[in-house]
Amino acid sequence: MKKSFYLYVLTFRGGDWSDQKVRFAEEMFHEHNFPKQSTNFEELSTYIESFATDNLTTEAFDELWALYVEQW
């Protein structure tokens, strides 16, 4: 079974704050409405575009999504 994007990104928490992936993971963790069970690019992308912040960016999402797809 494929791990959700949320669970994959959580593995970046606690890293070097200069890494946008780490900042994204921390922000995502505190975002209670994040689609935690999703593995769907469109659903996640729409959410990120709608609720983007300084740390929850589309650039970081794209980078993390590419890594996520490589893993699975």
Automatic annotation (TrEMBL):
From which domain of life does this come? Bacteria
- What Pfam family does this protein match (any one)? YozE_SAM_like
In this chain the YozE SAM-like domain maps to 4-69
- TM ranges are none
Put simply, this protein is called YozE family protein
Native species of this protein? Lysinibacillus pakistanensis
